[in-house]
Amino acid sequence: MITRSEQRAAQEHALEYFQRASIAITQKEAERIEVVDNGLGKLEETGLEILTYVNTERVCAKELVLFPRQTCPEHWHPPVGNDPGKEETFRCRWGTVYLYVEGESTSNPKAKPPKGREQTYTVWHEVILQPGDQYTLPPNTKHWFQGGEKGAIVSEFSTRSRDEFDRFTDPQIRRETVVVE
Amino acid sequence: MITRSEQRAAQEHALEYFQRASIAITQKEAERIEVVDNGLGKLEETGLEILTYVNTERVCAKELVLFPRQTCPEHWHPPVGNDPGKEETFRCRWGTVYLYVEGESTSNPKAKPPKGREQTYTVWHEVILQPGDQYTLPPNTKHWFQGGEKGAIVSEFSTRSRDEFDRFTDPQIRRETVVVE
């Protein structure tokens, strides 16, 4: 749960990131930047800011903003009916993003999970993305990511987003953000 | 047909566009910028420069560079087997792009087709895209586009690119660019 004023402040902050990275967005887009707290109410630790450019039956494209050390928590995109699950490519546009995926665990990883929730972070193969770097993730595989010291902007190119089917390792996480006045 | 030195010059020129727009690309990506002359050998009139970020079975993302008044000629993406055809979203990142699609013809359109090839441009519903503007095109519909006075960078978010199935109104057009030493 976040307040309306926290939501607005995070939208403004995300807009500054877009300006810093020279990513042009329209006024209408600025007003619909999605602020996600994953239900934990600690936006500076867990969550992200999303601008969805397009989400058709077949293709989705977004910009993701991560504030400094903000963490998108561990989740995966399971098959839905005939769909094998959402496939995603993350491309870093600005800043640094620490991405963790299934595979051999990295010793001395650069990111730390939010305090008290360490046990809900189980995949530790580290991929460091700087501007111009990208990584394609197959469907139905666990992943999480964190912004570096300055935060990050990441373009996501994917199949259709069906957020309601996302699965999270942390049972307290909710995809929907409740905003109170 | 273009020469190797024309190809290299166009890659360098496209790279300047990316730098101008603060779009970070890697050295390896810079070296594989695709220079397309559509077989006409007049790159400054007909063609475009393409950096494909990703092209999986399901999703494709590219940056397209159009030099000033450079024209991507009229074409469409037909169904292929069970695939209804490529669906594309064009998002202008920098400069201006004049996009023409099926629909009511626009009087006094801003773009002019390359001289001598006017009869191969048949759709005239004009969409003007400035930075932050975008347009989603259904599969199997004719379209063409031209960079404005300064040129343009356009992000393309789409289903899989299968260039070999593209259909062009101009029978002299070829999708493949032949490069000679």
In short:
Two copies of one chain form a homodimer. By secondary structure, chain A is mainly beta.
User: How many β-strand runs of chain A?
Assistant: 11
Tell me the series of helices and strands of chain A, N- to C-terminal.
EHHEEEEEEEEEE
State the separation between the terminal residues of chain A, measured CA to CA. 11 Å
The helix fraction of chain A, in percent, is 10-25%
Total helix count of chain A? 2
The unreliable regions of chain A are none
Please report the two chains with the greatest interface, counting residues with C-beta closer than 8 angstroms to the partner's C-beta. Answer: A-B, 29 and 29 residues
Q: What do the pLDDT scores of chain A average to?
A: 97
Structural class of the helix and strand makeup of chain A?
Answer: mainly beta
Oligomer: homodimer
> What is the CA-atom radius of gyration of chain A, in angstroms?
15 Å
Proportion of residues in extended strands of chain A? 35-45%
* Inertia-based shape of chain A: globular
Give a short account of the largest sheet of chain A: 9 strands, antiparallel
Characteristic terms for this protein:
homodimer; 181 residues; mainly beta; nine-stranded antiparallel beta sheet
